[in-house]
Design brief:
Layout lengths: L2 H9 L4 H5 L5 H6 L21 H16 L6 E2 L2 E2 L1 E4 L4 E4 L2 E3 L4 H22 L2 H6 L1 H17 L2 H9 L4 H27 L4 H9 L5 H21 L1 H7 L1 H5 L10 E4 L1 H4 L25 H4 L20 H12 L7 E4 L1 H4 L11 H23 L3 E7 L6 E2 L4 E12 L5 E8 L5 E3 L4 E3 L4 E11 L7 E10 L6 E9 L5
Antiparallel strand pairs: 1-2, 3-4, 4-5, 6-7, 8-10, 9-10, 10-14, 11-13, 11-15, 12-14, 15-16
The structure holds iron/sulfur cluster (2 copies).
The site of one iron/sulfur cluster has 16 residues, from helix 15 and helix 16.
């Protein structure tokens, strides 16, 4: 064993001599609970499930996603809290209605999350793929169900090879029925973001779904079943376009699950040596294959970084558990960068140009978003001044201007809006007493304003057109405009 390795163990509070004597022969490994597993040799990947830090993180994120799919059932002020009503071109987000004119807010949200994805990839590789992608999460859920019905990976492999029997048929039927139901629920919840979720259930039992709803639910349900249940990791390896562009976002400072070749090789199991025999100079990898057996994409990380690796960290959990049992330092497989292995010091995240650029754009999007949300009003007023003629001189000495008023109701209720106008003394106006505007719609009316000519001191006189929601007077909007009169000398 090299001096550098002994140093490493001492750094971790262990002694080289103890480790030199560790018997890692098959028999001894079994006695301390380390299984020697066969490597994956093609066909469906049946990954072994083990406990560990990264496994827990994956479950937490999976539960967050599953909870998100319950979001259409949340109610806010008696309405669906999250509703992307494409038919009426309005998005409802917790009482906030986003209409086509506010679409820039959605654009900023998308920009923020795309840059978050790019920044996280630059820092720690395919974090999205490993932990949060629908495909990963759903495959995890589908294989968990498979494990509950068909058993551990070795049993599943045997079952696959066995001829069809009644018990095999029943197990397969159970599994595929549950997978089908999950696929249906996934598609149903997706469509429920675009239409009233409770109404969708009612219409299901009355057979009243529209053809679009039926086509989307059937095709999306089938896609969930096929990609997460049948294709699994092959989707990530063979179909996902994002997997292919991520290479452009990582660099030598990106940390990825990596096998420490220098420490692990030459791999092998150590036997107690007889007196006089020389102990083989082996690395820390005892070649138990657990890291391969747990990998959801069937990758052997010891062969180096590979396209199939979704950086989920499960092999780190696996190897750490083995190292713990054989009393060696954890981290034979760990999140590390190429720079670290080249002996370079990794600069802090905030000093990396790529991360700075991504973070800068994210900050811009976040500030814009915050500004948009803080200044967004549930009512929006536009007043279009009549161009021809700009003003009318009345026989009674008044000057009259005309506007077309447009009021956008961004609340979830029907709005009853009242118009008032403020300006110079003597100002009078004529408008509809109340405009009734359905939720998410635009109401229009004509406004006539008269001001005695003698009260006008300038050609363009400022006036304020105020629109108030009578149902809730705290909701109002002021539109500043100019009252145009004859040229004043
Ligand atoms: S890297 Fe770790 S988990 Fe993988 S075979 Fe070696 S000892 Fe086992
Ligand atoms: S090699 Fe490790 S990090 Fe990569 S996908 Fe397999 S288990 Fe996950």
């Amino acid at each position: 064993m090299s001096d550098s390795k002994k140093e490493l163990y001492r750094d971790n509070g262990q002694t080289g001599s103890l480790l030199d004597q560790m018997d890692t022969s098959n028999k001894n490994l079994e006695s301390i609970g380390v299984e020697i597993l066969p490597v994956h040799t093609g066909g469906t990947v049946h990954a072994k499930r083990i406990k560990g830090t990264f496994r827990t993180v994956k479950w937490v994120i999976a539960f967050a996603w599953l909870a998100f799919f319950l979001a259409p059932y949340l109610r806010w002020d008696g309405h669906q809290a999250l509703l992307f009503d494409l038919g009426n071109r309005q998005f409802h987000i917790f009482g906030l209605t986003i209409l086509p004119q506010d679409i820039w807010i959605l654009a900023l949200i998308l920009l923020f999350f795309s840059l978050l994805l790019a920044a996280s990839t630059a820092i720690a590789g395919r974090l999205w793929c490993g932990y949060a992608c629908f495909q990963t999460v759903w495959t995890d859920v589908f294989t968990w169900i498979e494990e509950k019905i068909e058993g551990q990976p070795n049993k599943r492999i045997k079952l696959e090879d066995a001829p069809m029997s009644m018990s095999k048929f029943i197990m397969k039927l159970k599994k595929h029925t549950i997978w089908g139901l999950i696929g249906f629920m996934t598609a149903f919840s997706f469509v429920a973001f675009f239409t009233d979720a409770l109404d969708l259930w009612v219409r299901l039992f009355r057979f009243e779904w529209s053809s679009t709803e039926t086509i989307v639910i059937v095709s999306l349900g089938a896609a969930s079943y096929f990609f997460a249940g049948i294709l699994r990791e092959q989707t990530c390896i063979g179909f996902c376009p994002y997997a292919r562009i991520q290479g452009a976002m990582i660099d030598t400072q990106t940390i990825l699950p990596t096998y420490d070749v220098d420490r692990g090789e030459p791999r092998g199991r150590m036997k107690r040596v007889k007196p006089g025999e020389e102990a083989p100079d082996l690395g820390d990898c005892i070649d138990c294959n657990l890291c391969v057996a747990v990998c959801p994409t069937g990758v052997d990380i010891r062969l180096g970084q590979q396209f199939g690796c979704i950086t989920c960290g499960i092999c780190i959990d696996a190897c750490d558990s083995v190292m713990e049992k054989i009393k060696k330092p954890k981290g034979l497989i760990r999140y590390a960068s190429l720079s670290e292995f080249a002996g370079e010091k990794l600069p802090p995240v905030y000093k990396r140009p790529r991360v700075i650029v991504y973070a800068g754009i994210m900050l811009f999007a976040a500030i814009g978003l915050l500004y948009g949300l803080m200044t967004m009003s549930p009512i929006d007023v536009k007043a279009l001044h009549e161009r021809s003629p700009l003003y009318v001189q009345m026989s009674d000495g008044n000057i009259q201007n005309k506007w077309t008023i447009k009021v956008v109701n961004k609340t979830n209720e029907i709005m009853r809006a009242e118009i008032t106008v403020q300006g110079p003394e003597g100002l009078t106006f004529i408008a509809d007493k109340v405009i009734t505007i359905p939720s998410g719609n635009v109401g229009a009316t004509t406004l006539l304003v008269k001001i005695p000519k003698k009260n006008l001191t300038q050609t363009n006189t400022p006036v304020v057109i105020r629109v108030i929601n009578i149902n809730n007077p705290t909701i109002s909007d002021d539109y500043k405009s100019m009252f145009i009169g004859p040229r004043i000398k």
